[in-house]
Amino acid sequence: MSAREEILGRVRSALAATDPSEAPVPRGYRSVVPAGDVVELFAERLVDYRAELTRCTADTLPAALADALGTAESVLVPDGFPWEVPGGVPDTGQSAAELDRLDAVVTLAALAIATTGTIVLDHGRGQGRRVVSLVPDRHVCVLRTDQIVPGVPQAVAALSPDRPQTWISGPSATSDIELNRVEGVHGPRTLHVLLVSS
Amino acid sequence: MSATFVGMPAFPAAAREALSDTQLRRNLAHATGTIRAKRAAVVGEVDEWEELRLAGAAIKDNTLRHLDEHLLRLEESLTDRGATVHWARDAAEACEIVASIAKQHAVDEVVKVKSMATQEIGLNEALAAQGITAWETDLAELIVQLGDDLPSHILVPAIHRNRAEIREIFRDKMAAAGRPAPDDLSDRPAELAGAARLHLREKFLRARMAVSGANFAVAETGTLVVVESEGNGRMCLTLPEVVVSVVGIEKIVPTWSDLDVFLQLLPRSSTGERMNPYTSTWSGATEGQEAHVVLLDNGRTRALADEVGRQALRCIRCSACLNVCPVYERTGGHAYGSVYPGPIGAILNPLLRGTGVDDQVDSLPYASSLCGACFEACPVRIDIPEVLVHLRSKVVDAHRSAPKAEAVAMKSASWVLADSKRLGLAERGLGLAGRLLGRFGRKVMPGGRRALGRLPWPGSLWSNARDVPAPPVESFRAWWRREGRR
């Protein structure tokens, strides 16, 4: 008998005497929304994760972008990223080793979650491949305030599993040494979000 | 400590040794205390926490009740999206599947993102036996692997090590595994993490195959979810050409939208954060990568057949139960002799491996004070104390042919307790013993009572791992006769 048939057979015999009716799943949590302004809450929680945050408008964005990139000389720019980037290098499918030699990356995001201070990339236009927001040491992400949803349930409902996703909450971090939080292990050591009022 | 759990002594012997290690106890008390406080703070922010727990438990229970259907659906959706699905009855079969995929691609090293399932099946050792090196890339796993040590916690496997010990391991062992530690490495956590970053990046950049586990597998869409902090998971999942994910069959959730419960419960329960720094989700083969999924039984169907114990398969490996457990806090994880330590390990190991087969496994349901803190902390409401008691009865049943000293003692106790005259006589005898022993007992316990030393056999079976309080000089019933009538 194949492993597949044997495992399925074991599952069925384990469940033979079990009542197959399903318990109701309470879903009231889906309508819970945080009190107050979700944009302010997102900003507070993002900074709590030691990410950097700059509030700007469509007009001040180019200057904020240049500031956030600071001394970075080479910046990966994914297809569809809608602004001019100083030092910008278009994404031509560079290998990880080539990405490792770049100073920074700029991306858009699919949405952001206020209660957790999370940005979510589904790697659509302007967000780049999964590796580009991982290998360079500085990640600058441009987010509009109308992309912020209150909580995790609203984010899951808005996102499609058909696209791979990367949920990012602050810079890469570890708590493995005496449970002290240290920023920057394998991902970018700096996450800078430019929050554009819409 | 050698790098295998095989041949570990039963819990009472292992715990006795761990308890005498003051460095270990200091490291553990600091770590579990810190994480308890963090978790309590972020759980307290969520008003609907109890409803989330109920929803998480209900979703998992419903899935387990129809596990065969969900498995078939997962297989179909994964296959439709370009992944190759393999089935593994046990550890050896799972390891063989991973090794054969490596050989098909002529790969002699793989990078690994921390995975309880691959630790459970001993994948690193099995690959090594076939000439394939597996590099652990989680910082704590790296510390454990370089130190030729064993993990002692589900979430923070090197929780038993402090920064000075970690510095020594990096300085002594990194060079033989690749890029050496910097000469001037201090014991500051940021510098230690920086050394790991440099050491591992050269491995990530050249790796052609990665092995992962999965926190969740969505039957409806074939989506796998990996939750992590450091970015090593993202490195493993996005850089290599081939990704092999070893997934226990209990990791299934039915639909994409069910993840809205678990992505709230897991981070707050495990690291005490509102959200972990990185979560990756992908459905089948993406961005030209070759994707393999190994669906692992290895005892899970045995656990499923146990109607009381089945709830342990709800476990999402958050480790909240470890951090609140008074037994774990004092003995650490190694004493449990398994990759699954703490309260969940005390039930999961006997459920996966069966009772009455191995003395070490049979000792685990007794490694608890039944205080119930683990149930309170569990985000999917596994009633660990209930399962512990159930498994104790199974262990006793398995040993019925040769009665244990404890069973004999219980039988004679029930004879004494069944009759008030017999009890009165016994109490008078105990009072006399108490007066004598209270004077000569070996040490003073909290509250001022004296404790006895080791009892002669067969009492030693009990007293080897416990302080035996001197009997009280007066029984409650005697005190009541004297005082209660006033």
Characterization of this structure:
The complex is a heterodimer of chains A (198) and B (486). By secondary structure, chain A is α/β, with parallel strands linked by helices. Chain A is 22% helix and 26% strand. Chain A is built from five helices and twelve strands. Chain A has a six-stranded parallel beta sheet, with helices on both faces. A four-stranded mixed beta sheet of chain A has the order 8-5-6-9. A two-stranded antiparallel ribbon of chain A has the order 10-11. The termini of chain A are far apart. Chain B is of the alpha/beta class. Chain B has helices at residues 11-19, 22-44, 49-65, 67-80, 91-104, 116-120, 123-129, 139-146, 163-177, 189-206, 232-238, 259-270, 300-305, 320-324, 326-331, 342-353, 359-363, 373-377, 384-398, 405-417, 420-440, 460-463, 476-484, and strands spanning 84-88, 109-112, 133-136, 209-212, 216-218, 223-228, 242-248, 252-253, 278-283, 290-296, 443-444, 450-452, 468-469. In chain B, helix 3 packs across helix 12 (259-270), helix 9 packs parallel to helix 10 (189-206) and helix 16 (342-353) packs across helix 19. The interface between A and B is large, with 71 and 90 residues. Strand 9 of chain A pairs antiparallel with strand 9 of chain B.
